[in-house]
Amino acid sequence: MIQGVSCLQSVLAPVLALIGWSLLIWLWMYAKRIPAMSKAKIDPQAARFPGSLNGLPDDARQAADNYNHLMEQPTIFYALAFFTYLAGQQNDLTAGLAWAYVGLRIVHSLIQLTVNRVTLRFLVFSLSTIVLIAWTVIVALGALS
């Protein structure tokens, strides 16, 4: 329970879920990256510049790229979730949109970490962006009324 609201009706529970997913991807990234760097005999100091680890195998790079993606657009998600909560606009619809966004980001991660088909990733990314847009419009209209 989050202040009298079930986890499925809360916009804060999906925030916690995406934070947990991001931390799992962080572990996945280093589980791939450290052995790959060791095998390639890359000095960790060589990673001080962006792109310096482009010679690593795809699976190690994909995990790092996905972690970076989870630090980009989801910042809007986090801000929107907290705004929704603080503005008192938490309801079944906004919670559903929050969970939809998290689900789509997890699907995006799984695509990037496995088959890594750009068109499929872009489709899922676009759907997640549409969810954010719809949620933003709903909350903005609620704030204006």
From TrEMBL:
One of its GO terms (cellular component) is membrane. Keywords: Membrane, Transmembrane, Transmembrane helix. The chain crosses the membrane at residues 12-31, 122-144. It is found in: Membrane. The keyword Magnesium does not apply. The keyword Cell membrane does not apply. It holds the Pfam family MAPEG. This is MAPEG family protein.
